[in-house]
Design goal:
This protein has about 750 residues and is of the alpha+beta class. The protein is about 35% helix and about 10% strand. Helix 1 crosses helix 5 (about 205-220), helix 4 (about 190-200) packs across helix 5 (about 205-220) and helix 13 (about 425-435) packs across helix 16. It is elongated and about 130 Å long.
Amino acid sequence: MAGNRKSQRIEPSFRGSGGRDDDDDFHVGAGDRVAGGGGGGRKGGRGKPAKPERPRRTSSRRRSSSGGFFGLFRRLFYWCVVLGIWGAIGVGGLVLYYGARMPSATSWSIPDRPPNVKILAVSGDIIANRGLTGGEALSLENMSPYIPQAVIAIEDRRFYSHFGVDPLGLARAMLTNVTTGRMVQGGSTLTQQLAKNMFLSPERTLERKVQEVLLAFWLEHKYSKDQILAMYLNRVFFGSNSYGVEAAARRYFNKSARDVNLGEAALLAGLLKAPSRLSPARDPEAAEARAQVVLGAMREEGYVTDNEIKSAMSQTPARAKSYWSGAQYYAADMVMAQLPGMIGDIKEDLVIDTTIDLDLEKKADETLSAMLDKDGAKSNASQAALVSIDGTGAIRALVGGRDYAESQFDRASKAKRQPGSAFKPFVYAAALEAGRSPLSVRNDAPVRIGNWTPENYDQKYRGEVTLASALANSLNTIAAQLVMEVGPGEVIKLARRLGIESDLQSNASIALGTSEVTLVELTSAYAPFMNGGYKATPHIIRRISTADGRVLYENTYDNPPRVLEPNIVSMMNGMMMRVITEGTGKNARIPGWPAAGKSGTTQSFRDALFVGYTSNLTTGVWFGNDDGKSMKKVTGGGLPAKAWGEFMTAAHAGLSPSPLFGTANGDPLQDPARAAPQEGGDQLFDIISRTLDTDERPAGNSGEAVATDQTGAVPLDDGLIPPADVGGERQTGTRRTTLFDFLVGG
């Protein structure tokens, strides 16, 4: 029956996860109606709607629980995406902001590496590298293969696979630092480190880090991995003022990076973490411990085997001194002091060919060190110096002090001291030029010159003596008489001619060497007695070239001016030979070799010198103290003469003895009127001149004998022969033979 039909629709709507009864809403359709009576449509009364059926809580609770878990995941994912987008926007903004503060990328370029000066000995061996880096740049092919392997293993294992920034390495470093609670690892790649070292300041700021990343991308885009690695290894700081692997290898191991072994490479790579703290010069044990870590990393990367690791770990830890040590560094300092005056500012890598013989340098250093160690303390002598030159003036050995590591002051070329009686040969040579002879007789007796009364060393007088005997026994009274006879001015002129450049006082006491000179100039002024009367300008630089071989400067000194007549040289050689054979220089004898020289001792034994020569080398030796304190009766014929003899004996080992100039045909002192020696025997420069290209000799410097005036004095030459053209290219074709090349067999 239609009246009894009920059409009713109920839609419960639940809010919340579990539903709430008091908030249920009922929605009745427009066509629905509720009819009373029968059918149980209501219980309580007519016309009231039936109470809706309560929903099942179990199913609602199940849906709520399931939706909560996945909802949490969905919300987490959603917010991660949102935060990632905003983070990317923020990072992009920072990159754009800080990138805009940088110069345009089109203007970016690799800054020039500070120029290095490589100083070479005659043999081609390296004496030293000088410059801000302390070493030359090497390609990866030229350095030990262990070095790049060790650096990659410990610093950037994915160097050859990342694009300049290593996200995995950065994440690993962050995780390690968080778990340890302190900064243990860094996330920067080698490319980032190179960018920081070349372009940026060391300050730790967000701006610098962003710029570092941008520059790393640019480097990876512009250069190959090998180029980036080579630039890094040649610029990175290794401690102890060493930049680059070559400087570090020479600093710590006294060898080139070409020759570094596995253990040494591991030690160098280990320094990169803390160059100053881990330096072997400061803490050898810490450096070795870090090297062991590097070796382990290399094994993990497969660069080395267990046997190689075992061998490397058994090596003795490297121990380095606090400073460079070795007498050759005095020579390197001299080179660097002269370099600006020859080529101006140093703007590129240079190669300097010097005249130094490293074998002689080592012998000189060992001789002085042994002498000071043995007798220095008891003689109150704390320092010594030595310079040895050949007939051209080329410095073959230079020792500026007892220990370069302790004091870098060069006492051979910079310290000016009184030469004492070592100056007397110039007095006697001036007297010979004025017409005296070695057999001229003077009276050794008390002499008074104004208020000055010179006395002999032993305060004894011998009466009438020859000039040869007076020089051999270093009689002060005779030297003073000769100065007054020829005049102090003439003595000074002769000394200037022979090479003394320091100020000389024009007074009678110049006879006893009261004017201060350097050991280098005093020694070079003796060289004309050795070489036959030619100027021997002291020099240490032969050639200056760029790294690609372009010659900037070359000085051969192969056309020296004559400064003494051959007969004067011959007589002086005979006189000074007697100083060694029977006079004050007996301690300087060289078995089997004719030698000549002169000792010198200053007032109160403050300085003691011996300068002498053979037909091969002229050498000067000084002993004393930096503060000028007196030694304990050390004379020039004592420690200096002994050191001179030991060094010269070692320097001439294996060589055939040859006579001094003008002494081959007998004793030149027997005939005071003896003419110049005949050509062919001992005239060193006459022999050598025939090996040189005579067309290259400047006019007026042919090496011929210089005419003398009525007093017998030799006119002073107009000046030195200028060096080879500066800035010219190396000549091709027939190689020019120089005097220095002839002497050293080049």
